[in-house]
From TrEMBL:
<feature type="domain" description="FAD-dependent oxidoreductase 2 FAD-binding">
    <location>
        <begin position="22"/>
        <end position="401"/>
    </location>
</feature>
<keyword id="KW-0662">Pyridine nucleotide biosynthesis</keyword>
<dbReference type="GO" id="GO:0033765">
    <property type="term" value="F:steroid dehydrogenase activity, acting on the CH-CH group of donors"/>
</dbReference>
<comment type="similarity">
    <text>Belongs to the FAD-dependent oxidoreductase 2 family. NadB subfamily.</text>
</comment>
<dbReference type="InterPro" id="IPR027477">
    <property type="entry name" value="Succ_DH/fumarate_Rdtase_cat_sf"/>
</dbReference>
<keyword id="KW-0560">Oxidoreductase</keyword>
<dbReference type="InterPro" id="IPR037099">
    <property type="entry name" value="Fum_R/Succ_DH_flav-like_C_sf"/>
</dbReference>
<keyword id="KW-0285">Flavoprotein</keyword>
<dbReference type="InterPro" id="IPR003953">
    <property type="entry name" value="FAD-dep_OxRdtase_2_FAD-bd"/>
</dbReference>
<feature type="compositionally biased region" description="Basic and acidic residues">
    <location>
        <begin position="502"/>
        <end position="521"/>
    </location>
</feature>
<dbReference type="GO" id="GO:0005737">
    <property type="term" value="C:cytoplasm"/>
</dbReference>
<feature type="domain" description="Fumarate reductase/succinate dehydrogenase flavoprotein-like C-terminal">
    <location>
        <begin position="442"/>
        <end position="523"/>
    </location>
</feature>
<feature type="region of interest" description="Disordered">
    <location>
        <begin position="502"/>
        <end position="555"/>
    </location>
</feature>
<feature type="compositionally biased region" description="Basic and acidic residues">
    <location>
        <begin position="546"/>
        <end position="555"/>
    </location>
</feature>
<keyword id="KW-0274">FAD</keyword>
<comment type="function">
    <text>Catalyzes the oxidation of L-aspartate to iminoaspartate, the first step in the de novo biosynthesis of NAD(+).</text>
</comment>
<dbReference type="InterPro" id="IPR015939">
    <property type="entry name" value="Fum_Rdtase/Succ_DH_flav-like_C"/>
</dbReference>
């Protein structure tokens, strides 16, 4: 099965300068900065980030970070909740690593300087979110957990004289060696500074921590930098990407009207964890009977229930009712959400909060093993760009920050056994290409309609056909807008290919023409690669059954 043809590499000027380090980290969220702080003990480290160091998705995480930190909780309980949310596609070994190493990783964050909310006796204040059967969500600043974690990590990195940082830099493509391994990266540094324009960084190791793909869709909780750059460059270099069809749509994103686009304000699941509930336009609660946890069901269950309610009533949103919290609880526990709502003319202390699902998180990504190694020697990945096997078909709430933290540490622990030698890059014979930067709005529209919360063979085919036409539009000069557009269509093409092949509904992949979960035929993962075909490359899917882990072509 193939999707639209995409460029084999980005069209860009030849590098005008070269530098050499031991480890390049791409991205500056919780995964990237943790990896950098741990890897600095092993050699020279360079962090490359597309905007300022604190601009990624981590700072926007409201709810918190999940870990078994309470005497009433256990890693085994956390494991079971994660496996259930993952709808049969989690890797149990990866989940076990997450939940057993998570508590110590969070404690290390606290030692680093992250200040989590505490009770009067000094113990951590823990709450609950969708899919969790225990209070295990540690939070900071009420609902500003990600911002506090990012603050602590950025401060630690800036204290570390042995970590170099290049801000406002877009990584273009990977340098590869004769053995298929990674030899470094090419990047474009924007603005003033000693390093300017396109250059090359040679390195022993590249760690991808570049975040997600939220800008594929018209409405998302992701910041503008989330254009799938890491997944796209990994695909172009030949790395394996897994489970890309499982895009989680957060069920409760502040609804700002039909014309709202781009990053939308999140109404954290923690609001429902503290006792809020969903209602329709008539004030009826509709989650009862949908799941044993009702309003706190896993995200895919809640998002589907909201979509069904919207379709049944002809409305384009539902509501969160948290009026019973009162003014003080809103001010203390959810100050960020309170301010956000009020800035848009909604007072949640006295009014219902209009919400609708929006793109939130990619459960799939660049395939890695338990040590964060990808299918390419020398290339590692952690955080949202990676598919570690932890999330399966649907991420459990607040496991994302923990995954970035735990697997960044695992990468550094693996590299402590010895960095690979510096590889010699070979000439890149792949055909360069570029997509017109002006197609992004239309890409977001067709992905929202054809590959959004509800999918079908017809809708996916129409989205793929439109995408193919957009790719063929004449492009302008190479630069960040065109490179980002090319990355978006590369990931979109792969996502459409995977979503078309998986003819079932599971987790966050909902096919209205195949509405049932099909464990007999689809209990496994879809791997994607991007083999070249002349001047272009088309996504190729391979089905990997979870019982055998053997590769078998499936469609």
């Amino acid at each position: 099965m193939t999707g639209p043809a995409v460029p084999q590499r980005l069209c860009a000027p030849e590098p005008g300068w070269t530098d050499t380090v031991d480890v390049v980290v791409i991205g500056s969220g919780i995964a990237g900065l943790t990896a950098a702080l741990k890897a600095r003990e092993l050699g020279t480290v360079l962090v490359v980030t597309k905007d300022v160091v604190a601009s990624g998705s981590t700072q926007w995480a409201q709810g918190g970070i999940a870990a078994a930190l309470s005497p009433e909780d256990s890693p085994e309980d956390h494991l079971q909740d994660t496996l259930v949310a993952g709808a049969g596609l989690c890797d149990p070994d990866a989940v076990r690593a997450l939940v057993t190493e998570g508590p110590d990783a969070v404690r290390d964050l606290i030692e680093l300087g992250a200040r989590f909310d505490t009770l009067a006796d000094g113990d951590l204040s823990l709450t609950r979110e969708g899919g969790h059967h225990r209070n295990r969500i540690a939070h900071a600043g009420g609902d500003a957990t990600g911002a506090e974690i990012e603050r602590a990590l950025v401060a630690a990195v800036k204290r570390a004289d042995d970590i170099r940082l290049i801000e406002h830099a877009l990584v273009i493509d990977l340098l590869t060696a004769a053995d298929g391994g990674v030899a470094g990266v090419t990047l474009h540094v924007m603005g003033e500074g000693q390093l300017d324009g396109v250059g090359a960084i040679r390195s022993r190791v590249v760690i991808l921590a570049s975040g997600g793909i939220g800008q594929l869709y018209a409405a998302t909780t992701n910041p503008s930098v989330s254009t799938g750059d890491g997944m796209a460059l990994a695909l172009r270099a030949g790395a394996k990407v897994r489970d890309l069809e499982f895009v989680q749509f957060h069920p409760t994103v502040l609804w700002l009207g039909k014309s709202a686009k781009g990053q939308q304000p999140l109404v954290s699941e923690a609001v429902r964890g503290e006792g809020a509930f969903l209602v329709d336009h008539e004030g009826n609660r509709f989650m009862q009977g949908q799941h044993e946890l009702a309003d706190l069901a896993p995200r895919d269950i809640v998002a589907k229930a909201i979509m069904r309610q919207m379709l049944a009533t002809g409305k384009d949103h539902v509501y969160v009712d948290a009026r019973h919290f009162g003014d003080e609880k809103w001010r203390v526990r959810f100050p960020t959400i309170l301010a956000s709502c009020r800035s848009h003319g909604i007072d949640p202390v006295r009014e219902l909060i209009p919400v609708a699902p929006a793109c939130h998180y990619s459960s799939g990504g660049v395939w890695t093993d338990l040590d964060g190694q990808t299918s390419m020697p020398g290339l590692y990945a952690c955080g949202e760009v990676a598919c570690t096997g932890v999330h399966g078909a649907n991420r459990l709430a607040s496991n994302s920050l923990l995954e970035g933290l735990v697997f960044a540490r695992r990468i550094a622990a693996h590299l402590a056994d010895g960095l690979p030698p510096l590889r010699e890059p070979v000439a890149d014979i792949r055909v360069p290409g570029l997509v017109d930067a002006d197609v992004v709005d239309e890409v977001q529209r067709v992905m929202t309609v054809g590959a959004g919360v509800i999918r079908s063979a017809r809708g996916l085919a129409e989205a793929g056909a439109t995408l193919g036409k957009l790719i063929e539009q004449p492009a302008g000069e190479p630069g960040t807008p065109g490179w980002e557009a090319t990355n978006l269509v590369t990931v979109a093409s792969a996502l459409i290919a995977a979503a078309t092949v998986r003819e079932e509904s599971r987790g966050s992949h909902w096919r209205e023409d195949h509405p049932d979960r099909d464990d007999r035929n689809w209990s496994g993962s879809l791997d994607l690669t991007l083999p070249s075909e002349g001047d272009t490359a088309r996504p190729r899917t391979t089905f990997v059954p979870h019982d055998t882990k053997e590769n078998a072509h499936h469609g």
